[in-house]
Every structure is written in structure tokens, then in C-alpha cells.
Write a structure and sequence with these properties.
Layout lengths: L1 H12 L12 H8 L11 H7 L2 H13 L6 H17 L6 H26 L7 H18 L4 H26 L3 H20 L4 E3 L5 H7 L1 E2 L2 H28 L7 H22 L8 E2 H19 L1 H11 L1 H6 L4 H27 L1 E3 L7 H11 L13 H18 L4 H28 L4
Antiparallel strand pairs: 1-4, 2-3
């Protein structure tokens, strides 16, 4: 009787034990109760990094470097070295006039480099961008100056002509199967001939005073409010994008940047933007905020949005990473390729108008010389991979600043053009070597 009295007490003390059912042994019941313990939640390592503060971020940074994920680090280090070296050689290197020159001369070629970035993301190359730029300048000059067309209409037709030429390259590449290298090399030769034929025996057509093309590189916002206003807009837009992205990730249950990190990033961008605005607004040497820089930044913002926030941009990365996988995923690979080359042609023609503005008119040499090499070098030096599927639109800005800073510094210390070409070539080779080593390191670390 005493044993029977104890039985209910035992069952009362262990209410979690389920009652035995017919056909189920006691042993099996005990096994099924073991997994009922609370499971250990999976923690995203990125959350742990953020919880550790600065130490966690430093550990994450060193891990990425060891894994070959260098990002834009080599570019920023290179810019710091360039600034220190040339400032020691000439104290005017970081002056207002020098910074303004770098901004203006970077704009036209930088816009062309944005188109090349999209082509490189496909893992292809466009050798015709210089010739397309020359055709764009020639079309504008002939229509506006020789035939009296409206300035805006002539500019529009010039840009559309570049778009058509780029789409033609993409058609032969995507639909016919001719390698992009061969198609654009043929375009490089053919459009150079077209440019000379359009210019005729004159050889050059001067830019009319007060025209749109002349103002592209010769108009400056002298009011200081313009420079500081643009800096404020850029900082607020950057902070807003970080906050919106963080909110979207939290809503989706994904790791998000903490407010402290957003504040730190915004602070760094604010310092850079307002420092540039201050230098450009200095009364000695500079004329204010260049229109060319405003247009270049506008192109970068729009292109970056397209690349990162639209289906088209994601499809470009997918095709560049693995065309066959993209095709099986339902992506029209041919359409993406044709569109990307059309975009490259459009930005090439637009950049050609900047070159014509700097040279005082459309000539047979617009887009010639080392234009092609500088544009491709800017995209690669800025961090866009030659192997496709990896890169950022902002690499066009970073790479072009590096190239123009080197040229500006060498000009200020009186170096010959031959030395400039050799140094620029060495920087380009170093960028490609870094990219190749980075990819190999990532494969070794299993992160490719």
C-alpha cells in the first residue's frame, strides 16, 4: 500500500513525462523527452562582431584581408601615399586650384569609365569607347555648329548616336557570337574613320561661346552655398540610405548595422565632403564648385542605384559571374549584354562632349591618344575585377582620382609625358596583380 501511495507523488513531481501509450516502451518515451530541451539558437557571426565593438570590427577586418577581400583599401592607401609624396615635392599640390583641376579633368573620363565598369562586370572589354566618344563630339559639332541645330537637340542626338553604336557592338557579340574584343576593336578602327569623315577637311570645329558643351567644364558655381549645399545633400542622402537599409534588414530579421556604426560612417563621409567643399570655395585659385563634378557625381549616383538596387543590376552581376547559370535561372543573357554595351556607348559619347569642352572644340583627336587606356585603367585601379562579377560603380571615381592625381602631381614637378605613361602603366599593372592575388587568396580561403 505504501508503494502505491508513492506512485502518484512521483508522477506529480515529474509532470513533463508523457503517459505511456500502448505499443510504446518506457525506453522510447525517455528518448523522446530528451530533445524537448530548448534548442540553442543559431547566431549570425556578423552580429557577434558588432556586439564586440571596435575589437570585433578589427577582427572582421583582419579576417577579410587574410581572406583576400581587400575592397577599396589599396585605392585609399594609394591616394594617401600620392598626396603625401606630391605635397612634399610641391606645396601647391593640395591647393584649391589643383583640386579643382583634378575634379574637372576627372569628370569626362570618369563618366566614360562608369560605362566600362558595367562592361567589366560582364567579364568583357570595350575597346571602342574612345572612338565612340570622338563620334559623339563630332555629331554634336556638325549638327550644332555646321547645320545650326538647337544646342540641346544636338547634344541629345550625339548621346543617342553613342548608344546606337554600343548596342550594335552588343548585338554582334550577343547574337552573332563574335568575341567582344574583336567587335569593339573593329569599332575602335571603324568609328575613328567615321569621326574623321564627319569632321571633313576642317579637322576641328570650335565650341561656340556660351554653348552647353562649353559650359560642361568651364562653368563654376561661385556661390559658396552651392558647394556646401551639395556636401550637405550628399551626407544626408548617404545617412538616409544607411538608415533605410538598416530598417529593411531588421524588418526581414537580418543582421543590421547599429546606430553607432551608421553615425561613424556618416561622420567620415561628412568630413570628406565638407573638406572638399571648403577647398573648392577658397578664394585663392579656385572658382567654386565645378559643374563637371556635379554631373559626374549625378551619373555615379544613378549608375550605383541601377547596379545595386534594380533587377537589371543584379542580372548584370549574375551574367558576369556565370552566364550559363544566369541563363538557366531565366535571365535573358543576350538582352543584358546588348543593354550593357549600349550603356557603355551612351556614357562614352557623353564623356566625349566633356573632352571636346576641355579642348575647346571637336577635333579629329577627341577620344584618341591614351583616352581608352586611361578609362579602362580607372575602372580597374578603382577595384573592378577584369574577371567579371565583382566591382562597384564608385570605382570609376576612385580610379580616375588616382590617375588624375598622379598626372597633376607629375605635371607640377615638371615630369615628361613619357614618365607619366610609365608610372600610370605601373599603377595599372599593380591593380591587376592585386586583383589576381585577391581572387587566388579567396579561392584558397574558400570564399570565392
Amino acid at each position: 500500500m505504501s508503494d502505491l501511495a508513492k506512485t502518484p507523488e512521483t508522477s506529480a513531481e515529474t509532470p513533463e513525462a508523457p503517459a505511456e501509450t500502448p505499443g510504446t516502451s518506457r525506453v522510447s518515451t525517455e528518448k523522446t523527452t530528451e530533445p524537448s530541451a530548448a534548442p540553442v539558437p543559431a547566431v549570425d557571426p556578423r552580429l557577434l562582431v558588432r556586439e564586440e565593438g571596435l575589437k570585433g570590427y578589427w577582427s572582421e577586418f583582419t579576417r577579410k584581408v587574410r581572406g583576400g577581400e581587400l575592397g577599396s583599401l589599396p585605392v585609399f592607401v594609394g591616394l594617401i601615399v600620392i598626396a603625401i609624396v606630391f605635397q612634399l615635392q610641391n606645396s601647391n599640390f593640395l591647393s584649391a586650384s589643383s583640386v579643382a583641376n583634378v575634379a574637372v579633368y576627372s569628370s569626362g573620363l570618369g563618366i566614360m569609365a562608369v560605362g566600362i565598369v558595367f562592361v567589366l562586370l560582364l567579364g568583357e572589354i570595350d575597346l571602342s569607347v574612345g572612338s565612340v566618344a570622338g563620334v559623339g563630339a563630332a555629331v554634336w559639332a556638325v549638327l550644332n555648329v555646321n547645320h545650326g541645330w538647337n544646342d540641346w537637340l544636338a547634344v541629345l542626338v550625339a548621346v543617342l548616336s553613342g548608344t546606337a553604336l554600343g548596342a550594335l557592338h552588343g548585338f554582334f557579340f550577343a547574337k552573332i557570337g563574335v568575341p567582344a574584343f574583336v567587335v569593339t576593336l573593329a569599332g575602335f578602327l571603324g568609328w575613328s574613320g567615321l569621326q574623321e569623315w564627319m569632321m571633313g577637311g576642317e579637322g576641328s570645329i570650335n565650341t561656340p561661346s556660351g554653348s552647353i558643351v562649353e559650359n560642361l567644364t568651364n562653368y563654376f558655381f561661385e556661390d559658396k552655398a552651392a558647394g556646401y549645399g551639395l556636401a550637405l545633400v550628399a551626407v544626408l542622402a548617404y545617412a538616409a540610405s544607411l538608415l533605410v537599409d538598416s530598417r529593411r534588414r531588421r524588418t526581414a530579421g537580418l543582421p543590421a548595422r547599429p546606430t553607432s556604426e551608421i553615425a561613424l560612417r556618416t561622420g567620415v563621409v561628412a568630413i570628406l565632403c565638407f573638406a572638399v567643399a571648403y577647398v573648392l570655395n577658397e578664394p585663392s585659385g579656385a572658382r567654386g564648385l565645378p559643374l563637371a563634378l556635379v554631373l559626374f557625381l549625378a551619373v555615379l549616383v544613378v549608375a550605383d542605384f541601377v547596379a545595386r538596387r534594380t533587377a537589371f543590376g543584379r542580372q548584370v552581376f549574375a551574367v558576369g559571374g556565370n552566364p550559363e547559370a544566369a541563363r538557366r535561372a531565366g535571365i535573358s543573357v543576350d538582352r543584358i549584354r546588348i543593354t550593357v554595351f549600349a550603356l557603355s556607348g551612351m556614357l562614352g559619347a557623353f564623356g566625349g562632349l566633356f573632352i571636346a569642352s576641355l579642348s575647346g572644340g571637336a577635333t579629329k583627336s577627341v577620344g584618341g591618344g591614351n583616352t581608352l587606356m586611361l578609362v579602362i585603367a580607372a575602372a580597374v585601379i578603382g577595384g573592378t575585377s577584369l574577371f567579371g562579377g565583382r566591382g562597384k560603380v564608385w570605382s570609376a571615381l576612385l580610379g580616375m582620382i588616382v590617375i588624375q592625381s598622379i598626372q597633376q602631381g607629375l605635371n607640377m614637378i615638371g615630369m615628361a609625358n613619357a614618365i607619366q605613361y610609365m608610372i600610370t602603366g605601373a599603377v595599372l599593372l599593380a591593380a591587376v596583380v592585386i586583383d589576381s592575388v585577391s581572387r587566388r587568396t579567396q579561392k584558397t580561403a574558400g570564399r570565392a
